[in-house]
Amino acid sequence: MAGLHSVPAGIGRAVRRYGPSLLRLAAGVTVLWFLVRQVGAAPFADGLRAVTWPAVLAAVTLTALTTVCSAWRWRVVARALGVGIGLPGAVRAYYRSLFLNSVLVGGVLGDVHRAVTHGRRAGDVVLGLRAVAWERLYGQVIQVVVTAVVLLALPSPVRPALPYLLAGVACLAGCAALVVRGAARRGRSRPARAARAVSGDLRRGLLARDVWPQLTLASVLIVAGHTATFVIAARVAGCTAPLGELVALLLVIQTAAVIPLSIGGWGLREGVAAWAFAAAGLGAATGVTVATLYAVLMLAAVAPGAGLLAGDAARRGRHPAHPAGPGRPDPAPRALEAVRDLPARPGDRPRARRCRRPQAGLRPDGWPRDRSSPGGGDPPAYPHPAAFR
User: Fold this and answer.
1) Does residue 370 have a pLDDT over 60?
2) Higher confidence at residue 189 or residue 228?
3) How far apart are CA 69 and CA 92, in angstroms?
4) Taking the CB of residue 168, how many other CB atoms lie within 10 A of it?
5) Distant-in-sequence, close-in-space partners of 146: CB < 8 Å, separation ≥ 6
6) How far apart (Å, rounded) are the C-alpha atoms in residues 55 and 228?
7) Half-sphere exposure of residue 254, counting CA atoms within 13 Å on the CB side?
8) Running DSSP on this structure, what letter comes out for residue 22?
9) What is the model's pLDDT at position 303?
10) Domain extents in the chain
11) Which residue of 35, 149, 261, 324 has the smallest Cβ count within 10 Å?
């Protein structure tokens, strides 16, 4: 009977492990295949041919500014949760994550790498994951809010349906808040602990008086920087739409692009761009060309992350790092070595105590002999000599 259940169990583990990545891959490939069938491959080629050095330089400059703001936002969240990180290290880690997001399936694996690496260095991987998750979520919330404000103020193809979309988002947010509040009162179950952790992070972290203004400012600057890069890509690609209408379209594309159903960002972004530009009367092919050019510019702008990853690999090759952190020795084995009869690593057997020949004037256990008693007397109250070795 055990053999009958082994195959389904193995399939279940494989689905849980590889299912999300395969779903993102399938979604990205499907969208790109549909676009090629609808508009052909020419818009993609036009986007590649439209790349110019001034556009690349502008994208690199704007991305450097937005990356510093992103690292600042992450640093503020991490410090509020108790796993602080310096700004230079945060900038380097963010460049690595942006590059990995641009070349790997799903667009989130770079954030996972950043969270796990920082969590290991800080000594708490769970808090590292929570810090990155909250930082990304806060940025996406501000992205949605800015997009909604712009769409309400400027003409766009989604403006008639915007009130219904906002009402739906508000209902979902209210339901989520009620679920978290109710789950936090359910004793010591796993959902209750998770709900209390979420509530604590919000009260003492993200919504604290000295935290949320910094997060909001950094997020608004990030949205402005990415939108400016998108506008440059649209102008270089030959789009002559009015600036207000163009900004509204590009914000819709950016908001949809945060959904992790793509191949390094490719797929959903181009699909939404084709729909938005077509709905605005600018042509689906133009939207695909603009999105393609933007993707190439962003890939060039996050190229420093590839250099940092290559440098990390080279350092690991020259000096293999301990799991406690790159280039940092783990103090745990030495601390355990200093304690008598404790193993140096988990799973090791304790070392046998060495028998020592008693010295003159000392008992076999190391205590001084009491010459006034025949049996050596009781040991005194002062510390054992072995404590000073």
Assistant:
1) no
2) 228
3) 12
4) 10
5) 220, 223, 251
6) 11
7) 29
8) H
9) 94
10) 31-313
11) 149
